[in-house]
Design a protein that fits this description.
four-stranded antiparallel beta sheet, 2 helices, single chain, 205 residues, mainly beta, 13 strands, six-stranded antiparallel beta sheet, 12% helix, 2 domains, rod-shaped, Immunoglobulin-like
Length: 205
């Protein structure tokens, strides 16, 4: 009879301890930065050292941190919004989230101990994945610059421009070439170009 009572106390006492760990005090310092390109983001954190009952979390063995759950999603202001992805990993201090398209993301992390109890969420941190911006095209196929008429037709030759000069926005797409605006300061204007206030364009790759 005494053995049964002791067994009952032991089982229920351990269960109470496990439940106390359910709300582990997870104090994470999240650091987010690009790894190799705009779509790969590394999330870093520090593991908690104590439980919510102020007891210490051992480095190994029963009650130690065995896993982390990394969650990412949308943001509502500075708060976590809707989950986009989640990954549970063996206990670590960083995780790389890959293939994120351009957007603003919120990240947070949970700690899980050997009893299978999960902490509350860490603080939330945000990261903006910026869309890549292409470099401007350059003049490669011609050195001649022409005036661009208001109706987008090509006008008289306005001068010449060095090859490999950066071009600006697309002005006219012809059958044989794409004509882009170029800066007048990069053009050696002829008399027609100096007399006209029309924009100048050149063939760009």
């Amino acid at each position: 009879m005494v053995d049964r009572i002791l067994d009952w106390v032991e089982r229920h006492f351990l269960k109470s301890v496990a439940l106390a760990v359910l709300t582990l005090c997870l104090l994470l310092c999240l650091v987010v930065y690009n790894v190799s390109n705009a779509a790969d983001v590394r999330v870093s954190w520090t593991q908690p050292l104590t439980n919510t009952d102020s007891s210490s979390i051992p480095a190994s063995g029963p009650g130690s941190i065995s896993q982390n759950r990394v969650q990412w999603g949308t943001c509502v202001g500075s708060a976590f919004g809707t989950q986009i992805g989640v990954q549970t990993i063996p206990a670590a201090t960083s995780y790389v989230v890959t293939a994120l398209p351009p957007a603003v993301y919120c990240f947070r992390v949970y700690a899980i101990n050997t009893y299978g109890e999960t902490s509350l969420a860490s603080n939330v941190t945000t990261k903006t994945v910026v869309a890549p911006v292409p470099n401007p095209p350059v003049v490669t196929s011609a050195t001649v610059v022409r005036l661009l008429q208001p109706n987008k037709s090509l006008g008289a030759v306005a001068g010449t421009i060095p090859l490999h000069t950066p071009c600006n926005a697309l002005a006219k797409q012809a059958k044989s070439a794409a004509w882009h605006y170029v800066s007048r300061t990069s053009v050696k204007l002829n008399s027609a170009g100096r007399k006209s206030s029309l924009p100048v364009v050149a063939k760009c790759a």
